[in-house]
């Protein structure tokens, strides 16, 4: 399949590499010039399980992407999604399927501004990857993903996308309710990512604090109130228990969430406006109080002002 990866950072490189290894015709599209140059000159360097290799995969800046692919996989950070969609408009053909795998809320509406609804596919990925430097990524751990069509007539196309991804070892499953999974993952990010970032601690340390149980339930309750308006029912207690299971060091307890890595460790802006910030904004529009998400969003922005 002819596949363009739009946003070829850590995750885009992982997906692009695995799909390329399976024989798909992959193009990496990214706006970071040094990264694109390094990939074209030296190949994409993949560090995985203690080994390192350079893989030849073509990479271009968005303005230089000209061929219409069968599938575009969107993997920018949330803040870059709309700009990316604008700059690759010319390669989105009438039959090009677009799969959005970013974390966060509200992306379906953004993608639907640029892509016919029948070609929009949403997903949630549990794979991980890290960007070491230009043209260099590190792949760790195992993963899987869920994919679903937005238009009810496109189930077979979603299943075909799952097959292509699974053949490349990405373990894609057709989801009966991807919107629920997107909200549920946003609850994990909206508690662990933002709180560990503000408190400058890892997940296990956050879990050990006296107020944590109360705080995560307050945050998730506000998520669930907004989610209802999108037809999504989140069970607050079940969601909280799922998050509490992650405190265990055998899960991800020792890890610092990606928002901590972005803001505290690398002084980069975060995806907060698409997680707690989305709930805060939508709650205001709906006339619902969301004081926990309002405050967390303001504090993360304040921290960005201090560090970025
Ligand atoms: P990243 O910062 O490593 O990569 C994003 C890439 O997109 C960068 O190379 C950047 O140059 C490019 N980009 C961004 N905006 C652009 C634009 N407008 N035009 C051109 N290029 C643009 O990010 P990542 O870690 O790969 O994360 C991507 C998404 O996947 C995020 O939503 C993240 O939350 C989610 N995610 C990441 C992980 C992980 O382990 N890294 C795991 C699950 C989900």
Automatic annotation (TrEMBL):
Catalytic activity: (R)-pantoate + NADP(+) = 2-dehydropantoate + NADPH + H(+)
Signal sequence coordinates: none
Domain of life of the source: Bacteria
SUPFAM superfamilies: 6-phosphogluconate dehydrogenase C-terminal domain-like, NAD(P)-binding Rossmann-fold domains
Occurrences of domain Ketopantoate reductase N-terminal (ranges): 3-151
Record function comment: Catalyzes the NADPH-dependent reduction of ketopantoate into pantoic acid.
Family from the record: Belongs to the ketopantoate reductase family.
Name of the protein described by the UniProt record: 2-dehydropantoate 2-reductase
Species whose genome carries this gene: Clostridium sardiniense (Clostridium absonum)
């Amino acid at each position: 399949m002819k596949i363009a990866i739009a946003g070829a950072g850590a995750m885009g490189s992982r997906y692009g590499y695995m799909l390329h290894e399976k024989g798909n015709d992959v193009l990496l599209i990214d706006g970071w010039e040094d990264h694109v140059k390094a990939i074209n000159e030296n190949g994409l360097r993949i560090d995985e399980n203690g080994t390192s290799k350079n893989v030849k995969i073509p990479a271009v800046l968005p303005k230089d992407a000209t061929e219409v692919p069968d599938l575009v996989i969107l993997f920018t950070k949330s803040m870059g999604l709309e700009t990316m969609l604008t700059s690759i408009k010319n390669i989105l053909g009438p039959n090009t399927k677009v799969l959005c795998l970013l974390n966060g809320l509200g992306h379906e509406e953004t993608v639907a501004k640029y892509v016919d609804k029948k070609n929009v596919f949403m997903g949630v990925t549990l794979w991980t990857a890290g960007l070491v430097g230009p043209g260099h990524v590190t792949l760790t751990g195992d993963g899987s993903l869920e994919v679903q069509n937005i238009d009810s007539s496109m189930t077979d196309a979603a299943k075909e996308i799952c097959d292509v991804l699974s053949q490349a070892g990405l373990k894609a499953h057709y989801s009966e309710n991807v919107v629920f999974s997107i909200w549920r993952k946003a609850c994990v990010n909206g508690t662990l990512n933002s709180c560990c970032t503000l408190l400058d601690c890892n997940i296990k340390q956050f879990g050990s604090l006296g107020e944590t149980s109360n705080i995560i339930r307050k945050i998730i309750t506000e998520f669930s109130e907004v989610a209802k308006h999108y037809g999504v029912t989140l069970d607050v207690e079940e969601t909280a228990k799922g998050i509490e299971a992650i405190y265990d060091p055998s899960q991800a307890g020792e890890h610092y969430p990606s928002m901590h890595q972005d803001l505290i460790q690398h002084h980069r802006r975060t995806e907060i406006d698409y997680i707690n910030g989305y709930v805060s904004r939508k709650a205001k529009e709906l006339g619902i109080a969301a004081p926990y998400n309002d405050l967390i969003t303001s504090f993360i922005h304040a921290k960005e002002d201090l560090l970025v």
